[in-house]
Amino acid sequence: MSKQFAKSGFVLSVVFSMKGIEMRYQVSGKQIDIGNALQQHVKSEIDEVVSKYAERPTDAIVVFSKSGHEFVCEATVHLSTGLTAQARSHDNEIYASFDGCAAKMEKQLRRYKRRLKDHHAARTTPVELSSASSYILVSEHENEESEPENLQPIIIAEVETTIPKLSVGEAVMQMEISGKNFFVFKNDTNKLVSIVYNRDDGNIGWIEPK
User: Fold this and answer.
1) Of 103, 122, 141, which one is at a domain's C-terminal end?
2) DSSP line for 112-135
3) Which of 91, 87, 89, 96 is nearest to 69 (CA)?
4) pLDDT for 76-121, tens place per residue?
5) The whole model's pTM is what?
6) 176 and 87 assigned to the same domain
């Protein structure tokens, strides 16, 4: 086991063996002091969750921040097959924000326990990823009373991202274990960029070019 500790705003990383598998942790706080007790709590709780429901997790990233008077916890666990589990929670207490986040992730993984294990057994190579760009546009909500001068969006940020090549079933599973309302992927059958999403009627929608 190796450890690296740092002060507020920097990363605390831990590498430890979970059932013979090396698991990497990164726990960081944005202008928040992250002590050893909280770090150990994060490690033990995520260890318990992923060991029950996921095969061969490779690393976990947990970020704490403040939003007003509340603490916000965002957790991401990467699996060896390329799928990713994500959850987010907030609370007045920092420990409670993490516990809520861990509970959400456990609920998402529990639903797909069998399929995650089958996915690990069936997929011999990691998910193929394609590079892409994600853009943040200026919101027009600030001036709802006035009509926009034009429909040309104003880009305020560009972020590098990836698009995984998955089956439709894998994409639905990835969407739900990451807690998202939609998911963009490349269909591994026809290589077309597609979208699955949660419909208002409770069903799953699937959009694909012809």
Assistant:
1) 122
2) THHHHHHHHHH--SPPPEEEEEEE
3) 91
4) 998 877 788 899 999 999 999 999 999 999 988 887 777 776 665 6
5) 0.70
6) no
